[in-house]
Amino acid sequence: MSNTAQATLAEAVHTIPAAAAAEMAAAGRRLASAAGLVDDSGWVAAARAAWAELPSVYRREISAFRRNSGPAGALVLRGLPVDERDLPVTPTVGGSVQRTATVPAAFLVMTACGLGDPAAFLPEKSGALVQDVVPVPGQEYFQGNAGSVDLMMHNENAFHEHRPDYVLLFCLRPDHEEVAGLSTASIREALPRLSDRAREALWQPDFSTQPPPSFGSPDGGPVRHSVLSGTPEDPDVQVDFAATSALTPVGGEALAELSDALVAVARTVRLRAGDLAIVDNRVCLHGRTAFRPRYDGRDRWVQRTFALADLRRSRSHRADDGYVIVR
To answer: Which one of 29, 221, 246, 249 is at 20 to 30 Å from 299 when CA atoms are compared?
Structure first.
């Protein structure tokens, strides 16, 4: 599925007032100075308490999005404080994560607490709650966060029973040419474009999604699943166009029709430093347009956190009731 976007996310870009951004900067600095690492349960508890102290204008935006993510299923909050002069060089190592507390990490985890709970997957970037999404030398063509070619549209961890409800992407530094775009496409907007035949096929458990090698192979092979589930008038979607396969000819035709419908409604936004994008992973796919890294220390740098609206649902997959899904 191409990432060519036919519209922009302009209507879903909300600018944070300067006064509120200043309050957030102060709250972020306080949390970043708290003892402990980002992944410590005590630090996450401090982030949850700090969430309640953030400006009401910001908390209202997040609360409204959590209740109803809208037709687009995505939101960009613009104007969060990031001073690029204070940033270190962009990491270039595969699997790079943010373990030590920083102001950007504080924003991400506080916001994840406002959406539910932060979460991570042990096989993915060692289970870190805040992960770097950066280009890695030699992986330019990789279909994943280390690549720099077009990243195909997907639901995050579409193969997993407890895939994230929300994906948070905080831009610390754009690419040099500022051409890399976050692409999104919502099933809410694509659904009316699907034929009855395609809709019926997508509701059948006639699809499978291959997990990345780091997760290993599930016993018995990939689990069969439907692409659409939930309520017919407002379904959830579960697909990764780089990893999902149809198991029947009718399913293959429906998957191709879905791809065309999503392309037709796709939106894009070029993230700036200080932009926090939130994708409702239940109803919205996301991808990235291509860019050219220079590996000079100032390449595109986005930090990512996942959130679960109902952490309890994944309890059997988490050790000691922590935030890391171990399998």
So the answer is: 29
What span, in angstroms and rounded, lies between the C-alpha atoms of 23 and 44?
A: 20
Rounded distance between C-alpha atoms, residue 119 and residue 127, angstroms? 8
Q: What is the pLDDT of residues 192-205, one digit of tens each?
A: 999 999 999 999 99
* Region of 127 on the Ramachandran plot (φ > 0 left; ψ -120 to 50 alpha; else beta): left
* pTM of the predicted structure, to 2 decimals: 0.95
Q: What percent of the chain has pLDDT over 70?
A: 95
Structure tokens at 146: 């280390």
**How would DSSP label each residue in 77-92?**
EE-----GGG--PPP-
Per-residue confidence (pLDDT) for residue 3, from 0 to 100:
46
Beta-strand runs (E) in 74-206 = 74-78, 117-121, 131-133, 151-154, 166-173, 181-186
Find the angle CA(318)-CA(242)-CA(299) to the nearest 5 degrees: 80
Q: What is the pLDDT of residue 4?
A: 43
DSSP code per residue over 61-78: HHHHHHH--TTT-EEEEE
Residue 314: which residues within 8 A CB-CB, separation 6 or more?
A: 119, 162, 308, 325
Q: Which amino acid is at 69?
A: S
Neighbouring C-beta atoms of residue 137, cutoff 10 Å: 11
Of the listed ranges 3-12, 46-55, 127-136, the least confidently predicted one is 3-12
